[in-house]
Write a structure and sequence with these properties.
Layout: E1 3-10, E2 19-24, H1 37-41, H2 51-60, E3 67-71, H3 81-90, E4 94-99, H4 104-112, E5 118-122, H5 130-135, H6 141-153, E6 157-164, H7 171-181, E7 184-191, H8 210-214, H9 217-220, E8 224-230
Parallel strand pairs: 2-3, 3-4, 4-5, 5-6, 6-7, 7-8
Antiparallel strand pairs: 1-2
Length: 232
């Protein structure tokens, strides 16, 4: 497990909290619209950041930082994630995991050990045959469904989120997802940013307009206690 990125202060990676963000290399998905694909590739040419340097910065900002977000890539694919979570907890910070939902059992263990305070899970598209296309690999939806169930029942803070990617997710698909996962605490709908996409084909896609999303909001609000629009 390699730390490939670090943001000292973020106001957007954990709702209502000031957070530091640690980015881990590697991912088991190959989403064509991914905006963090340099991290996903985990190229040996990318120089890792030493934990001790991050630790020093976290200690200095202890009074201003509410928690630490572990993102990626896919944090839960690394067995070493437990050791990192312990180190962060020992510094007195709350922790949040950003995950694609493919690893329900390690995530369950981390939650039960008290190492995770919040989880944000990406739901790439409708829970059907389209998931393969969205993830760029053969998918096993049962693990995604198990993670959804885990988060709804585990008692910690969580949110589900979907990026509105043309060709992968339509506004109607958002409605289908919301109905499938309902009832949920929080569902975030995120705007797609073409210029950051992994695939050149998706860099030419035209994002949906906010007006198109506004039309489905009344339906989505029937299935989630809180609905958030990001990037619109």
């Amino acid at each position: 497990m390699r730390i490939l990125g670090f943001i000292e202060t973020s106001l957007v990676d954990w709702d209502k909290k000031v957070a530091s963000v640690i980015f881990l290399g590697g991912c088991n998905f190959n989403c064509p619209f991914c905006h963090n694909y340099p991290l996903v590739q985990d190229s040996p040419k990318t120089k890792p950041i030493e934990w001790e340097k991050i630790k020093e910065k976290l200690i200095k900002k202890r009074k201003w930082i509410d928690g630490v977000v572990l993102s990626g890539g896919e944090p839960m694919m690394h067995p070493e994630i437990f050791g990192l979570l312990i180190k962060i907890k020992e510094l007195g910070f709350e922790t949040k995991i950003d995950t694609n939902g493919f690893f329900p059992y390690p995530l369950k263990e981390a939650i039960e050990l008290g190492l995770v305070d919040s989880v944000a899970m990406d739901i790439k598209t409708t829970l059907d045959e389209k998931y393969d296309k969205a993830c760029g690999r053969k998918m096993y939806l049962v693990v995604i469904e198990r993670t959804i169930k885990l988060l709804k029942e585990c008692g910690i803070d969580y949110e589900f989120r979907t990026t509105l990617v043309p060709g992968i997710v339509s506004p109607d698909d958002i409605v289908k997802i919301a109905r499938k996962i309902a009832p949920v605490k929080r569902y975030a709908i995120q705007q797609f940013v073409p210029k950051n996409a992994r695939s050149a084909r998706f860099r030419t896609k035209k994002p949906y307009k906010k007006e198109e999303v506004d039309k489905i909001l009344p339906v989505i609000k029937n299935h989630a206690k809180e609905v958030i629009l990001r990037g619109f």
